[in-house]
Amino acid sequence: MVFEGSKWISNGAREYVGTVEGVYSNPSPYFRKDFEVKKGLIKATLYATAKGVYEAYVNDMYAGDELFTPGFTNYGKLILYQEYDVTDKIRKGKNCFGAVLSEGWYAGQLAFQKKQYFGTWPLCLLMKLVLEYKDGSVEEIGTDSSFKTTTGRILASSFLDGEVVDNRLPESYEMFDKSMKTDDWDNATEEGEDFSLLKPQEEEPVRFLHRLKGVLIGHDKGDIYDFGQNTAGVLYLNVKAMEDTKITLRHGEMMDGDKLYTANLRAARCVDEFICRQGRQILTPTFTFHGFRYAEVIIEGDAEVTEIYMNVCHNDLARTGFVDTSSELVNKIFNNTLWSQRSNFISVPTDCPQRDERLGWTGDAQIFSMTAMYNKDCKAFFARYMRDLRLDQRPDGAVTDVVPDLYGLVGAGCAAWGDAVTVIPYHHYLMYGDKSILEDNIDAMKRWVGYLKNASTDLIRPATGYGDWLSIEDDTDKSVLATAYFAYSTDILVKCLEYLGQDAGEYKQLSADVKAAFNKAFVADDGVIKSDTQTCYLLGISFDLCEDKERCFNHLLRTLERKGYRLSTGFVGVRFLLPVLTEMGRADLAYKLLLSEEYPSWGFTVKNGATSIWERWNSYTPETGFGNVGMNSFNHYSLGSCVEWMYAYMLGIRPHKEQVGFGKLIIHPVTDPEHRISFVNGSYDSEGGRVDVDWAEEDGVIVLNVYKPAEMEAVFEIEGEIIAITIDGEEATLDMAANAEEIQIRYIPAK
Fold first, then answer.
1. Nearest Cα to Cα of residue 199 among 296, 327, 71, 304
2. Is the pLDDT score of 408 beyond 90?
3. Catalytic residue among 103, 163, 357, 644
C-alpha cells in the first residue's frame, strides 16, 4: 500500500472551536515536516489525501495546481488520494513539506440541511514523500506525530458560506518557507492507519481554467462588478490597503435593479471576508467557490482595488466538440450550455454551483450525459461517478437520488434519477467504446431493473418521484413516466448484455411485458396516453412504447398545437423533444422551437440576459420578475440537453451502434426546411479521431463538407437528391466516401 508506514494525523481538535459568526468551521490546521535531502536525488514523489480538503506544499510551493483535493466522495466508503511529482521543488539541504486543511465535503455543512454528513472533527491528513537517489536507495517520510501543526490565516472556510481570512498573518506558502519557525507549533496527533477506503484519483482534477475581468457597474453598500458570465469560481483582488481594513466580497448571479440579487442562494452565505495587512496584497479564498456573475466589494477602512478578476474553476476536461451556426441565438444557447457544464462539473456533476445544494443529482446527470460527452472528454469523469453510484446503491437495488449520497437528505429509487445506472454507462459505451464501463456496471444495472420489477404492481410503477421536473403547466402522470423508464432501462440492459455477449433473453421478455402493461394501463383505444402531455408522447416514441408511432406522433403534434407550438416539457422530457420531431419528419418544428424567443424557450432566457442555462423556464420573466426563491438557479445544465441535438442532427455526427466509440460513424445532417439557418459547422474529437463537418445552403443547394480519418468508416445518410460527390477534389460515388478523408457532397434537400 502506498501509505504503508504513515499515520493519519490531526491537530487534535475534536469539537467546534471556531469563532467566526455565520461560518460553522474551525480555523484551518497547518501540518509541516522538516527534513534533509542527501546528494544524488533523482526523483521525489508525494502522495497525499485528507479527511477534509487539503492544499499540499513542498517548501514554499504548491505540490500541484489541483483544487479541493481529494474530491467529493462518500468518505465513509471511498477516499481518493493524489500523486505529485515534486522533484523540481526539492532543494539541497533543508526542506519541508505538509499541507493546510479545511472541512470541505467531509466535515463541512452541506446542502439545504447544512449538516456534516460524512464526518466531523478532527480533520485528518495522510501523506508520504518518497525520495529516490542515484545509488538506488529510497527514503520514505510519512505523516506521524513528529509533524508540527498550528492554525493560521484561514479563520473559517465553507463551500456554502465562504471563507474568512486574516491577511495580517503569513500567507499559506510562507508557512512552509525555510525561515518559518515552528518551535511554538504543536506536535500532530496520530489518528490510526486504516487505509482500506483509499483509491487513486484517476479522473481529471478541478483547476482554475479561465480568468474573467470585472467591470464596475454600480454601487450599493460597496462597488458592484460584472464579470460578464455566470459561472463558478472565486474573486481575485489586488488591493493596496491600510492595516486592519476589512473587505467583504458578496456574490450573486443576477442584479435586482441596482442591487445584488441573492435571495435564490437560500441558506448559503456565499460571502468571503478579509482583514488586510498594511500595503499591497492579493485577496482570494482557498477552500471555497461560488456561483456568480456579479460581485460586490465592501470596504470598511482604507483600501484601493487596483485589479479584480474572477478565477473560474471546474474539472479539467479536454474540449472535444464545438458547434457554430449562422444564428447568434443558437450559438448563445450552445455557449450557455457549455458554461453550465463547466460550472457544474466540480468533482462530480452537480445541479448548481451557487445555493445551498451543489449535489450530484443522478437525474440531471443522465439527461445531460450525451451532451456532456460531445462537449468534453468525460470518459474518466463519468466512470468515476458511476463507481460512486455503485457504492451508494441500496441493498435492494435502488439507486440514490444524489451521488455521493448524503444520508437521509433525499431518497432512492426515483424514475429518471435512478435510471442513471443504465443510461450513463450505455451512453459512455456508445461514445467511447470501452467495454469496461459495461463490465463494471452490468450487475448494478441488473439490480436496478430487479428493483423496478419488485417495486411494481403488475409491472406498473407507482406514482412517486419527481416526475417531469419543472414542466410548464403540463404535468405528466408520475406512474406513466416511471413505467416508461422501467421499460427504457430494461431495453438498455438488454443492449448492454448483448454488447457483452451475454444472454439477455430474460430481460427481453421483461421488456415486452412492461411495454404491454404500459399500453394496457395507460393507452386508450384512440392512442391517447394518460395525462396527454408532450412528455408522455415523447417517451412513448423514444422508448418504443407506442404500438402505432405515427398515431402517437400525431397526438404529440396536437399537444404542441394546444400550446401554440411552444414546449411545455420539464427537463426529463425536453431531451427527447427535438430528436423526436426530427426523426418523425418535422425538423421544421424542431428548428422553430430551438429558434423561438417566446416564453417558454431557450431563446427566451437568452433574450432576458442568460449567459448560462437556467433551472426553470421562468427563472425570470419581465412580467413577474424572479421565480420562486425556494428553487431558482440561473446555472443548471439540465435544459441544455438540446445541445446533443445540435451535434447529432444539425451537424449530423452520430456514433454507430454496431461499431461503437466511433470506429464507425453516421453522418446525417438535418438542415432547416425553413432556411432560417444558412450554415452550420463544428467538430467532434472522438475516440476514433477528429470529425469536422460543415454545411451551407447556396441557392437551394446544400454543400456538405466532411473531414475525418480514412480508417474511420462513415455511413452517409443524406436526405435529398445528391447532385455531386467529390473526394479530395475528385469526382466520386457515395460508396467511395465511406473510407475517404475529405468529402464534399452537394445535394438538394428533401422537402
1. 71
2. no
3. 357
Which grid cell is 17? 472551536
Continuous segment of H or E residues that includes residue 129: strand 124-133
Q: Are residues 409 and 528 located together in one domain of the fold?
A: yes
- Do 533 and 607 fall within a single domain? yes
Q: pLDDT digits over 645-682, tens only? A: 999 999 999 999 999 999 999 999 999 999 999 999 99
Q: Quick one: which of 87, 6, 79, 94 has its CA closest to 46? A: 87
Is 719 catalytic? The answer is no
The amino acid at residue 423 is V
Whether pLDDT at 608 is above 90: yes
Total structural domains in the chain? 4
Residue of 55, 273, 296, 615 marked catalytic: 615
Instruction: Please tell me whether residue 426 adopts helix, strand or coil conformation.
Output: helix
Do 19 and 140 lie in a common domain?
A: yes
DSSP-based three-state secondary structure for 83 = strand
Domain that holds residue 269: 207-315
Is residue 348 within 8 A of residue 72, CB to CB? The reply is yes
| Nearest Cα residue to 268 out of 246, 282, 283, 253 | 253
Q: Give the model confidence (pLDDT) of 534-560 as tens digits.
A: 999 999 999 999 999 999 999 999 999
CA distance 20 to 27: 9
Here the CATH number for the domain that contains residue 36 is 2.60.120.260
> For residues 419 and 423, what is the distance between their CA atoms, to the nearest angstrom?
6
Which pLDDT belongs to residue 1?
A: 81
- The dihedral through the CA atoms of 477, 480, 484, 486 has a sign that is positive
Active site residue 506: no
Q: Within this chain, do residues 287 and 304 fall inside the same structural domain, yes or no?
A: yes
Query: 255-271 burial, b for 16+ CB within 10 Å, e for fewer?
Result: beeeebbbebbbebbbb
